Fold this protein.
Amino acid sequence: MNDDIRIPVDLPLDSDGFLRRECPACEQEFKWFSHQQGDPEAELVTQYFCPLCGVPAGTDQWWTPEQVDYARGVGGPAIDQYVRDSVDKMLKSVKGMSFTPNRSFSLGIETPDALAEPDDMMIAEPPCHPNEPVKVPEENASRVHCLVCGSLFAV
Protein backbone atom coordinates (compact mmCIF):
# COMPACT_ATOMS: atom_id res chain seq x y z
CA MET A 1 0.00 0.00 0.00
CA ASN A 2 1.35 3.40 -0.95
CA ASP A 3 0.48 6.04 1.64
CA ASP A 4 2.22 8.90 -0.18
CA ILE A 5 0.10 11.97 -0.69
CA ARG A 6 1.26 14.31 -3.43
CA ILE A 7 -0.19 17.79 -3.39
CA PRO A 8 0.98 20.28 -6.02
CA VAL A 9 1.83 23.69 -4.60
CA ASP A 10 2.34 26.66 -6.89
CA LEU A 11 4.70 29.34 -5.62
CA PRO A 12 4.63 32.79 -7.20
CA LEU A 13 7.41 34.04 -9.43
CA ASP A 14 8.29 37.68 -9.95
CA SER A 15 7.64 39.26 -13.35
CA ASP A 16 11.09 38.11 -14.60
CA GLY A 17 10.41 34.46 -13.68
CA PHE A 18 12.49 34.30 -10.48
CA LEU A 19 11.58 32.36 -7.33
CA ARG A 20 12.46 33.63 -3.84
CA ARG A 21 14.84 31.37 -1.88
CA GLU A 22 16.50 31.45 1.53
CA CYS A 23 19.99 30.13 2.26
CA PRO A 24 19.94 27.49 5.01
CA ALA A 25 23.41 28.67 6.16
CA CYS A 26 23.27 32.49 6.23
CA GLU A 27 19.44 32.76 6.13
CA GLN A 28 19.59 35.61 3.61
CA GLU A 29 17.08 35.78 0.79
CA PHE A 30 17.81 35.90 -2.92
CA LYS A 31 16.05 34.58 -6.04
CA TRP A 32 16.94 32.05 -8.68
CA PHE A 33 15.52 31.70 -12.15
CA SER A 34 12.70 29.17 -12.34
CA HIS A 35 13.21 27.02 -15.42
CA GLN A 36 10.24 25.17 -16.91
CA GLN A 37 10.32 21.45 -16.16
CA GLY A 38 12.38 19.68 -18.81
CA ASP A 39 14.14 22.88 -19.93
CA PRO A 40 17.42 21.78 -21.57
CA GLU A 41 19.05 25.04 -20.41
CA ALA A 42 18.59 24.13 -16.73
CA GLU A 43 21.63 22.71 -14.98
CA LEU A 44 21.02 19.31 -13.35
CA VAL A 45 22.75 19.45 -9.97
CA THR A 46 22.59 17.78 -6.57
CA GLN A 47 23.39 20.96 -4.66
CA TYR A 48 23.32 24.72 -5.09
CA PHE A 49 25.64 27.38 -3.73
CA CYS A 50 24.28 30.43 -1.95
CA PRO A 51 24.93 33.47 -4.15
CA LEU A 52 25.48 35.55 -1.00
CA CYS A 53 27.68 33.43 1.30
CA GLY A 54 28.86 30.70 -1.10
CA VAL A 55 27.90 27.77 1.17
CA PRO A 56 26.43 24.74 -0.67
CA ALA A 57 23.30 22.83 0.34
CA GLY A 58 21.05 20.17 -1.20
CA THR A 59 18.52 21.21 -3.81
CA ASP A 60 15.62 20.82 -1.36
CA GLN A 61 17.07 23.07 1.37
CA TRP A 62 16.26 26.56 0.05
CA TRP A 63 12.63 27.20 1.13
CA THR A 64 11.72 30.42 2.90
CA PRO A 65 9.71 30.04 6.13
CA GLU A 66 6.74 31.66 4.37
CA GLN A 67 6.89 29.10 1.55
CA VAL A 68 6.99 26.20 4.03
CA ASP A 69 4.00 27.59 5.96
CA TYR A 70 2.11 28.17 2.72
CA ALA A 71 2.79 24.63 1.44
CA ARG A 72 1.62 23.15 4.73
CA GLY A 73 -1.52 25.25 4.63
CA VAL A 74 -2.31 24.47 0.98
CA GLY A 75 -2.03 20.78 1.80
CA GLY A 76 -4.54 21.09 4.64
CA PRO A 77 -7.75 20.33 2.73
CA ALA A 78 -6.16 17.33 0.96
CA ILE A 79 -4.84 15.98 4.26
CA ASP A 80 -8.29 16.47 5.84
CA GLN A 81 -9.86 14.48 3.01
CA TYR A 82 -7.24 11.74 3.22
CA VAL A 83 -7.80 11.31 6.97
CA ARG A 84 -11.59 11.22 6.53
CA ASP A 85 -11.37 8.68 3.72
CA SER A 86 -8.91 6.51 5.68
CA VAL A 87 -11.06 6.49 8.81
CA ASP A 88 -14.19 5.75 6.75
CA LYS A 89 -12.48 2.87 4.96
CA MET A 90 -11.03 1.43 8.16
CA LEU A 91 -14.26 1.56 10.15
CA LYS A 92 -16.44 0.27 7.31
CA SER A 93 -14.27 -2.85 7.15
CA VAL A 94 -14.97 -3.80 10.80
CA LYS A 95 -17.53 -6.61 10.83
CA GLY A 96 -20.55 -6.20 13.05
CA MET A 97 -20.12 -2.42 13.28
CA SER A 98 -22.20 0.19 11.55
CA PHE A 99 -20.54 3.48 10.78
CA THR A 100 -21.89 6.76 9.53
CA PRO A 101 -19.17 9.24 8.55
CA ASN A 102 -19.29 12.72 10.05
CA ARG A 103 -18.83 14.93 6.98
CA SER A 104 -18.23 18.01 9.13
CA PHE A 105 -15.10 16.47 10.72
CA SER A 106 -11.96 18.48 10.00
CA LEU A 107 -8.44 18.78 11.34
CA GLY A 108 -8.91 22.55 11.21
CA ILE A 109 -6.02 23.30 8.89
CA GLU A 110 -6.83 26.64 7.30
CA THR A 111 -5.94 27.36 3.69
CA PRO A 112 -3.55 30.34 3.69
CA ASP A 113 -3.81 33.45 1.58
CA ALA A 114 -1.87 33.24 -1.68
CA LEU A 115 1.73 34.39 -1.60
CA ALA A 116 2.79 37.38 -3.68
CA GLU A 117 6.24 37.92 -5.13
CA PRO A 118 7.44 41.52 -5.45
CA ASP A 119 9.76 42.66 -8.22
CA ASP A 120 12.73 43.41 -6.01
CA MET A 121 16.47 42.69 -6.22
CA MET A 122 18.81 42.94 -9.18
CA ILE A 123 19.77 40.28 -11.72
CA ALA A 124 23.28 38.82 -11.54
CA GLU A 125 24.35 36.58 -14.41
CA PRO A 126 27.43 34.45 -13.68
CA PRO A 127 29.94 34.25 -16.53
CA CYS A 128 30.53 30.54 -15.83
CA HIS A 129 26.81 29.54 -15.99
CA PRO A 130 24.95 32.36 -17.78
CA ASN A 131 21.82 30.19 -18.05
CA GLU A 132 21.47 30.22 -14.22
CA PRO A 133 21.03 33.88 -13.27
CA VAL A 134 20.11 34.92 -9.74
CA LYS A 135 18.65 38.04 -8.19
CA VAL A 136 20.36 39.48 -5.14
CA PRO A 137 19.71 42.54 -2.97
CA GLU A 138 21.46 45.54 -4.50
CA GLU A 139 23.73 45.95 -1.47
CA ASN A 140 25.11 42.42 -2.07
CA ALA A 141 25.69 42.79 -5.83
CA SER A 142 29.42 43.51 -5.70
CA ARG A 143 30.36 39.91 -4.82
CA VAL A 144 28.07 37.08 -5.92
CA HIS A 145 28.66 33.32 -5.99
CA CYS A 146 27.48 31.20 -8.90
CA LEU A 147 24.46 29.12 -7.94
CA VAL A 148 25.80 26.06 -9.78
CA CYS A 149 29.58 25.99 -9.13
CA GLY A 150 30.09 28.53 -6.33
CA SER A 151 32.57 30.67 -8.29
CA LEU A 152 32.74 34.25 -7.09
CA PHE A 153 32.01 37.00 -9.63
CA ALA A 154 31.26 40.72 -9.71
CA VAL A 155 28.08 42.14 -11.21
